[in-house]
Amino acid sequence: MALLKQKMVWIGLLILMLVFVIFGAAMMGSVVSVKPKNVPVALVVLDQSVDLPTGGKLAIGETLKEKLTANKQLPLTWTVVATEEEARAGLDDREYYGALVLPADLSAGVASIMSPTPKAATALVIANEGLNSQAATVVKQGLGLAIKMVNTELSKSMLEQMGKATGQIPVASAQALLSPINVTEETVHAVGTNNATGNAPGMLTQIMWMGSLVTAMVLFLSNGSARKTGAGRWGTLIAQPIVGTVFVGFGSGFLVWMASSWYGMELAQATATWMFLWLAGSAFFLLQSALLNWIGFPAMGILVLLMFFSMPLLNMAPEFLSAASHDWIYSWTPLKFVAVGLREVMYFGGLGAASDNAAVLWSIAGGFLVLLLLSGLKKGKATTAVNSAA
């Protein structure tokens, strides 16, 4: 076929393969091999050992502590803390995705199974849903499985002891033996209704990036049109970030209103969410505008690739990522600081909780504002591109 003799056809095939490699790495490379590992969890052991009627002591808390901390199959990293209050403070400070509290009467409750009037022994599992709902689910499932295994061992051991001691087992005790340790689950920093199962911060970040990019491109082209009609270079350049941040502020407010009014997203910190999104959108806009002013239209390729490589990572806990994804992309992408900051604003009490990420965004905004203004000194391809596009 004559068509296959054309070089452009084979160049097109190479380009197609390159597109698959780049976007495959962006959309699949970071997520297909994701698995939880080293998920930080607090462990509180308040349990007091008790004497058994058959002799010896029962210390369920210490037994559980030894089994859990020695279990390498669970994707959890344990931090033993002294009190429940300390564990809850760590949850509030985003140090743990969950906590397991073994109360002071845990062993007494299990030991009571051997009495005519057994009482429930209950452990408390606290899931920090706002920090990351996927990781919180892993914590609940992992702890539930671990306690189930301990329950099986306890049931078998106590059944043998009671059979030897009495020869028969009361009905109430037999029922308690089915599950010697009950689990009560509690969720802190809940994500609320219609929050995309806790993924709303990442979703809002992506929408804000796209809105800022459209604003940056429109003002980049408008800058060229204004200069073509004789407007001064510095006047249009100074107006560009001012108009852009105003537009982004309006757009971020509209986005918050739309999410709440149209889609029923529960936003306990609506005003704080809007203000943080405004800061995020301004940082995005200034970054995008600086690259467009310096490089011209080729900057769009960089910005689009940055978005596609960042998107799959925004709603994942860092502990779920491969070392390459974490170190090469997640650790520095601007979208990460917005998604994490929004999570702190929306689920951990407002702007004060996001001060560290806000500081990073202020730095990004300030740095790229300077670069944007310095582009007025540049002459060459980017300036020519603006004028020709206009």
UniProtKB/TrEMBL annotation:
Q: Which GO terms describe its molecular function?
A: ABC-type transporter activity
- List the membrane topology term(s): Multi-pass membrane protein
The protein's matches in Pfam families, at most eight in alphabetical order, are given as:
ABC2_membrane_3
Domain spans labelled ABC-2 type transporter transmembrane = 8-374
Signal sequence interval, chain numbering: none
Q: Where in the cell is it found?
A: Membrane
Main location group: membrane
Q: Does this entry carry the keyword Transmembrane helix? A: yes
UniProt KW keywords = Membrane, Transmembrane, Transmembrane helix
Transmembrane region(s) = 203-222, 234-255, 267-287, 294-314, 359-377
Q: Does the keyword rRNA-binding apply?
A: no
Q: Name one GO cellular component term.
A: membrane
What name does the UniProt record give this protein?
YhgE/Pip N-terminal domain protein
